Amino acid sequence: FVLSSLAYGLLYDSIGWRGLLWMGILPALAVVWVRKYVKEPEIWVENRKKPREQGREVHAPLFAIFKPKVLVNTLTSCWWMASGFVVYYSIWSLFAVHLQRDLHLGALMVGAPLVIANLVAFLASGFWGWVADILGRRWSMMIPAFLGIFVTPVYLLTSDPLWIMLGFITQGFFAGAIYGQNPSHLVERFPTEVRSTASGFCYHQGAIWGGFVAPILTYFAINTGMGFGIPMLIGTVGGLVSFILALSVGPETKGKVLVADLEVFEAVETP
């Protein structure tokens, strides 16, 4: 995101959107490196090894994450992920459009706060990760989400570039950094045999809900004539409240030890 913001601020006036979109293809090449060098987690390998050595195999289809033992966890994880995506796209996806269309700022003035806010969010993710190891996973996300509610109006209810810059960068430290615990907390919520399935399903159904944010906010911004600031404010604050509630009813996983043992299913013999 930092690199894309830099590219926009420095190159948009010369190569336009088409050139920037072509540049966006380059990060996809990272998948080659991932396939070659990133190894499977040892816990998962051990979980697969035991049934095979015993001549037994575990089948964990998608519906397994809706079994009674994990159903509530699955539903609250879906709620948490959906709320997080709504917050993410409410903060980031239309901010540049807001600065361009509503405030008529140039490419450099649009790119600068995005670059700095993303650098701050990157560093803040490490900070809130440290907090997670002390206070727990949920508190390390709920605290910055709560503070982010009060930061949101600072940069969306003003036309002063200084307050926009300061407010948005501050948001990068709070609501912009609530995602650093996603990998740890999401995988710790589920047993080994359904961990990948559950994590993938909960995360990506959240992305579907997040995909509605930009078109819905744009609809209200254009058709009501109110501009992008108010719809972004409502989406951000509403999403943060939902995010906090979803985490508050979910489990705390600080200190959980991941094991290779089966927790949801008994191993079943294969022919």
Describe this structure in words.
The protein is mainly α and 271 residues long. Helix content is 71%, strand content 1%. The chain has twelve helices and two strands. It has a two-stranded antiparallel sheet. 33% of the residues are buried. Residues 267-271 have low confidence and may be disordered.
List the helices and strands and how they pair.
Elements: H1 2-23, H2 30-37, H3 42-53, E1 56-57, H4 71-92, H5 95-102, H6 107-135, H7 137-156, H8 161-173, H9 182-188, H10 192-211, H11 213-223, H12 229-248, E2 268-269
Antiparallel strand pairs: 1-2
Helix pairs in contact: 1-6, 4-10, 4-12, 5-6, 6-7, 6-8, 7-8, 7-12, 11-12
Helix content: over 70%
- How far apart are the termini? 50 Å
> What structural class do you assign from the helix and strand content?
mainly alpha
Percentage of residues in DSSP E strands: under 5%
- As residue ranges, the low-confidence spans are 267-271
The SSE string, one letter per element, is: HHHEHHHHHHHHHE
Number of helices: 12
Major sheet: order of its strands? 1-2
Categorize the overall geometry.
globular
Backbone CA Rg: 21 Å
